[in-house]
Every structure is written in structure tokens, then in C-alpha cells.
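Structure first, sequence second, as always.
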């Protein structure tokens, strides 16, 4: 039997992130200033981000060195392990070879610290003393709390209200690392107060939480804003996942036919597939399939419109070309809180528009069924977000059982579900439900997309 765990030493950890932009077959659409319709400049973004991250956002360099201070913190949990899922293969009776890269061993329990550590470091280098951010299910908020703790930065987190109440242990993790966490919408910002006046029971959304965090950041000179997904530099920081995985698969003598991951804003899965997609674009492995999996209740790539839209609900951010359900879309309260976002990373949207990556959606009950199958074979209690990718991984493995093909399937396992026990309880007790795609709400939200100036 081949190795069950493929491990890298500290010395084998990548020392540079991979930037896909120089290798794209067509350049990304420009990010636009909402007032002028012209491409944003570094100075436009300076009130929100440190200049080092702004330069990474637009960098033409293929590789960007990881600072030694960041590498040092990375080495407290990285490199992470690549597993061969022998027990899952046996349970499914499939000839497919299934590998999964497990990001749940970070202190925060997910992939999110890969960029949280980097963002905290660059803010510290610029003398920033305080950061604001949003979080859905709490993975990003807890990861950035962990990062800010390392570099002595104050953090305030606006957590989507429904998740704040569904997942109290995420809030406790943030507070244990020294951050302050409030439910969004909150009474702490004008955006939050306005929403609560309109709907006192508003469950919140990532777009709304972003608006609150941005409003807070721009109101103080000592504060920057930090985003855990969507932006180019965030996806680039996550490529350490895929870079490690390529090395590990080489050790195993394997290469994927299919790569599967979940998407909300797109950071974890892009971090896995971007180092591989270079092979697809170059023609080295043209038949490689890359499947993005999203919730059927918030189906951005599969049902959204490819258009310029704000990244937040209040229209405070620049305009990005992306698949969107409209920045006013209020997603249903599924337990996969990290996937409830109206838009998607422009890089992923661009690759999808070019036909280089695929997208599928999955319903909540189906994903939990797959998550239980994974737990009862591989033993890992996965995050509800990750279950979406597990569901499609299982689907692909069952197709191999029917066809007799021994394909190699690579799963990006973005994190554990140890603080999602209420969701597991709801499923196991038969109380969990699916949410229908709210087509009328989406039509209304899309009708309110901004009209981008052409002059």
C-alpha cells in the first residue's frame, strides 16, 4: 500500500507565493472607482490597505517572496499533510484515487491564517495599530484574531448576525486571541443602524458586514481594513496550499485528473488550484478539471450575472467584474456561513468566463450527508463549507465506480467543523432543512446593480 500521509519537512515549505496574473490567457478586467468609472489607483486604496498589499494586488511578478517573519509563523503548523483517502475509497467501492489536503490543523482550524498572518504582518510594517474586518461563519475572524495577536494589533470583527448566534464558540476564539467581535448589523456604524431600523431581525450578510468594517476603518487614521477572500493578494497568499500539494503529489507519483473545492469568496480553493491551473493554461495538462462548488441557496457562479458590482452592501468598495447575485442580496441562513457571499473572486470569475474552470451547486442536506460519510470513513468532522466539496468529490468517485476509471481526485479540505456541532446536531436529529434559491430576491437585487460610467 502507498503512503497514507504525504508529509513535507519545514525546509520543503514554499518560500514564495504564486501570482497567476502573468499567466492568465487574458488580463483581468480592471477594478473601477465607483465615482468615475476609471481604474482604481494605489492611492485610491491606501486608506484601506498597506501599500505592500496594494502592490501585490496589481503585481506583474509571477512569484513574490514570503517574508521570513511570516514564514516563521507559518512553520508553527505548515506544511500541512496530504492524505490518501483509502477508507473513503473503500466505503465508496470506487477505483478512483482520492487525495485530500487537510487545512484543519492550523491553530484557527482552517486555511484562513495563510493570508491572515501575511496581512497582519504588512499592516504592522506600515505602523497600523488597529484593523477592522468582517466574518461569516467566523473562520476568517478567528484567523485574523490569531494573526493580529502575533503582531500586537487591535482587531474589531463584524460577524454576520445569524452566524454570531449559530456559532458562539467562534466569537469566543476571537476574544481569547484578544479581538472584539460584534454581530452585524450592529449599532456601531451608520450602515448597521440603518439596516436595524429597517429590519430589527435582519440575519446579516457578508456584504453588510464588509460595509460596517469599511465604514469603521475609514473613520479612523490608525485603522486599516482587512478582507479574508475575493481580492487578488488574498488568493495569492493561499497558493501555499497548492504549491505544497504539487510537491506532495510528486512524492506520491500522482497528478490530479479532477480538483474539487468549495467557494464563497474563493480563497481556499483558488489557493489550491491556481498552481495547477498554470499546467492547464500552458497545455501541459489540458484535460485537468477544476470544479468549484457553492451552495444552491447562494449560487453565485451558477446563477449570478457577470457584471460590475460592489463588494459590499452599502456600495463603499470599488467596483469589481464578477459573477454576482447583486450586492443587496440577503442569503438564506444556511450553516455554511463562509459561503454566503453575493459575489466571487474576480480571478475565479474570469477563469470561469473563459471556460477554464467549472462550477456546481449543492443543497445543504446533500452536503451534510456527504460530510457524515467522510466522518464515518476518514474520521474528520468537516466544516459545513468543506462538505460542499466533499459532496462533489464523492459524486466524481461514484462516477468512476460506474465507468471503471481509476481517476485521481484531489479535494481541498478547507477546515474542521469542531465549532459547528449545532449544525451536526440539527442534521443528525432531522431538523436541518434545505433552502430554495430565492429567485425573486435575486432578480430584484440584480436590477439594482450600479450603472458603471463609461466616460
Amino acid at each position: 500500500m502507498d503512503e497514507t500521509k504525504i508529509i513535507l519537512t519545514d525546509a520543503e515549505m514554499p518560500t514564495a507565493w504564486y501570482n497567476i496574473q502573468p499567466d492568465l490567457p487574458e488580463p483581468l478586467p480592471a477594478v473601477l472607482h465607483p465615482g468615475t468609472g476609471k481604474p482604481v489607483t494605489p492611492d485610491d486604496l491606501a486608506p484601506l490597505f498597506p501599500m505592500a498589499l496594494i502592490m501585490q494586488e496589481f503585481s506583474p511578478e509571477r512569484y513574490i517572496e514570503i517574508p521570513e517573519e511570516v514564514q516563521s509563523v507559518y512553520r508553527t503548523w505548515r506544511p500541512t499533510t496530504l492524505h490518501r483517502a483509502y477508507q473513503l475509497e473503500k466505503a465508496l467501492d470506487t477505483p478512483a484515487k482520492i487525495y485530500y489536503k487537510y487545512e484543519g490543523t492550523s491553530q484557527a482550524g482552517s486555511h484562513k491564517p495563510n493570508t491572515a498572518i501575511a496581512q497582519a504582518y504588512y499592516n504592522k510594517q506600515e505602523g497600523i495599530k488597529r484593523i477592522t474586518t468582517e466574518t461569516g461563519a467566523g473562520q476568517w475572524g478567528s484567523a485574523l484574531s490569531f494573526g493580529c495577536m502575533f503582531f500586537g494589533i487591535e482587531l474589531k470583527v463584524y460577524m454576520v448576525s445569524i452566524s454570531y448566534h449559530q456559532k458562539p464558540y467562534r466569537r469566543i476564539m476571537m476574544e481569547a486571541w484578544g479581538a472584539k467581535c460584534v454581530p452585524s448589523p450592529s449599532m456601531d456604524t451608520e450602515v448597521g443602524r440603518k439596516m436595524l431600523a429597517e429590519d430589527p431581525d435582519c440575519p446579516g450578510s457578508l456584504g453588510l458586514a464588509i460595509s460596517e468594517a469599511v465604514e469603521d476603518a475609514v473613520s479612523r487614521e490608525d485603522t486599516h481594513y482587512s478582507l479574508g477572500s475575493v481580492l487578488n493578494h488574498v488568493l495569492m497568499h493561499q497558493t501555499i496550499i497548492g504549491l505544497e500539494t504539487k510537491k506532495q503529489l510528486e512524492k506520491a507519483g500522482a497528478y490530479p485528473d479532477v480538483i474539487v473545492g468549495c467557494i464563497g469568496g474563493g480563497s481556499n480553493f483558488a489557493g489550491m488550484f491556481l498552481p495547477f491551473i498554470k499546467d492547464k493554461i500552458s497545455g501541459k495538462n489540458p484535460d485537468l478539471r477544476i470544479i468549484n462548488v457553492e451552495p444552491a441557496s447562494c449560487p453565485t457562479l451558477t446563477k449570478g450575472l457577470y457584471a460590475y458590482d460592489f463588494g459590499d452592501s452599502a456600495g463603499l468598495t470599488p467596483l469589481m467584474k464578477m459573477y454576482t447575485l447583486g450586492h443587496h442580496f440577503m442569503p438564506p441562513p444556511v450553516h455554511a456561513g463562509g459561503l454566503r457571499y453575493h459575489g466571487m473572486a474576480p480571478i475565479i470569475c474570469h477563469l470561469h468566463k473563459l471556460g477554464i474552470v467549472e462550477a456546481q451547486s449543492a443543497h445543504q442536506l446533500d452536503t451534510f450527508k456527504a460530510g457524515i460519510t467522510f466522518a464515518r470513513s476518514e474520521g474528520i468532522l468537516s466544516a459545513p463549507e468543506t462538505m460542499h466539496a466533499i459532496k462533489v468529490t464523492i459524486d466524481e468517485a461514484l462516477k468512476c465506480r460506474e465507468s471503471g476509471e481509476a481517476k485521481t481526485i484531489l479535494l481541498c479540505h478547507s477546515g474542521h467543523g469542531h465549532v459547528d456541532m449545532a449544525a451536526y446536531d440539527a442534521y443528525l436529529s432531522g431538523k436541518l432543512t434545505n433552502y430554495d434559491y430565492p429567485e425573486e430576491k435575486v432578480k430584484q437585487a440584480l436590477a439594482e446593480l450600479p450603472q458603471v460610467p463609461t466616460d
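Margin note: The two ends are 64 Å apart (CA to CA).
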